[in-house]
Amino acid sequence: MSNKSFRTQSALKLALRSALALGAVAVSVPTFAANSATVNASATVVLPIALAKATDLAFGKFAPDTATSTVTVFTDGSRSKTGSAFLLASAPGAASRLNVTGEVSTAYTVTYTPSATVISGGNNMNITFFSTNAPDNTTATGMFTAGNLGLGSAESIYIGATLAVGANQAPGTYAGTIAVSVDYD
Amino acid sequence: MSSHQGLYLEKRPSFGRFAVWLPLLLLAGAAQAQTVTPTQSLSFGRFIASGGGTVSVDVNGARNRGGSVILLQPSAASSATVHITDADPSNASKSFFITLPDTATLSNGSSTMSLSNFVSSPDGIGTLIAGSKSLAIGATLSIAPQQAPGNYAGSFQVTINYQ
Q1: How far apart are CA B142 and CA A119, in angstroms?
Q2: Interface predicted TM-score of the whole assembly (ipTM), two decimals
Q3: In chain A, which residue's Cα lies nearest the Cα of B118?
Q4: Which residues pair with B34 in a beta bridge?
C-alpha cells in the first residue's frame, strides 16, 4: 500500500516536472535559437550618356590649282594646306566639337562612321578624319575612341580632317557626314 | 516482484530528471554560441535606368537585367554573404532554417527602389559543417522608368532558426 502510494506520487511528480520543463522548452526555442543579421544592399543609378553636336566641321573656302593639294582643318580649328591651293581668309573653316555628358568619372567608347568622300553633285573629294579630346592637339592623326567623363561629368570631342583637292577641282559646295556615337564601357 | 518494482521506481525519477533538464542546458548553450555575421553586402553595381525594369543578382553575384535597364561594366555587383558559426560542439552539425524578407527598400533621399525575390544558397535549410556555414544571398531590384540617378542604399534582415 505504501509502495503503491509512493509510485503514484513519484509518477505525478515526474509528470508535473516534465510538463513544466516541456513548457519551458517550447517557450525557449524562438528566444534562444533564432539569430538575425542585418545585411546592407546598394545600387547606383547612373545618368544616361548624351552626345550633342556643338559645331560642324568646315573647310571654309579655297581655290584649287592645276596640281593636287590638300587642305587640313586641325582639331583646334586652324587650317593649313599643302600644294598650291589658295585658302580664302574670309571663310576660315572650323573644327567640329561634340559634347559628351553623363555620369561622373565614367569611361565610354566613341565609334565613328565616316564618309570616305565629300560630294557636290557628280564631283567628290576624298576626306580623312581625325579626332581628339584635347582641342589644342594639332598633331592628332587617329580617332579618339576611349573617353572618360571625369569629375566634371563632361568631355568634348574635337574632329578635324584632311581633304584631298584634285587638280582643277570643280567649284561647288561639297558635303559629307561622320556619324558619331558614344556608349558607356 | 516487490524488489523489481522498487528498482524500477528508483531508476525512473533519476532518468526523468536528467532527461528534463538536459534540453534546457543545451538551449542555454546555443544562445551564447551562435553568431550570424554579415560578411559581404548585396550590390547591384551601376546601371542606367532608361525606361525602367529589373536588375537581379544571383547567389553567385552574377547580374541580369530585365526591361530597358542598361548594365554598365565593370559590374561591381556582388551577392551578399552571411557567416553563421556555433562554438558549441554539440551544435557542430546542426541544421537551421533560413528566413529571408519578402521585400526591402533601397533609398537615395526621397527616391526609392524595392528589392524582392530574395534567394539564398543553401536555399531554405542549411547545415553547419564543423560549426560553421556561409550563406550567399541574391535578390531582384525593381527600377522605375527614369529612376533618379544616384547612390541607393538599404538593408534587410536574414534570420536563422535551428531546426
Answers
A1: 50
A2: 0.76
A3: A41
A4: B86
Altogether, the residues listed in chain B come to a count of 163
What pLDDT score does A33 carry?
Answer: 56
pLDDT tens digits, A135-185: 777 777 899 999 999 998 999 999 999 999 999 999 999 999 999 999 988
pLDDT tens-digit series, residues A35-67: 899 999 999 999 999 999 999 999 999 999 999
Q: Identify from B2, B22, B46, B99 which residue to disrupt to test chain A contact, counting A C-beta atoms within 10 A and taking the largest count.
A: B46
Mark yes or no for CB contact B151/A44 under 8 Å.
yes
- Nearest Cβ partner for B159 among A6, A18, A36: A36
Q: Measuring CA to CA, which residue among B128, B143, B138 is closest to residue B65? A: B143
Q: How far apart are CA B122 and CA B135, in angstroms?
A: 6
Q: Report CA dihedral (B96, B101, B107, B113) to the nearest 10 degrees.
A: 130
Q: Which amino acid is at B20?
A: V
Mark yes or no for CB contact B43/A18 under 8 Å.
Answer: no
DSSP single-letter state for residue B65? E
- Which phi and psi angles does A137 have, rounded to 5°? -80, 95
Beta bridge partners of A165: A69
- Reading the block at residue A9, the C-alpha cell is 506520487
CA distances (Å), origin A49, targets A84, A109, A148:
44, 11, 11
Could you tell me which residues come within 8 angstroms of residue B69 by beta carbon, excluding any fewer than 6 positions away? B47, B48, B49, B50, B52, B53, B54, B55, B143
Q: How many angstroms separate the CA of residue A92 from the nearest CA in chain B?
A: 41
Structure-block grid coordinates of residue A89: 581668309
- Matching residue, cell 570616305: A116
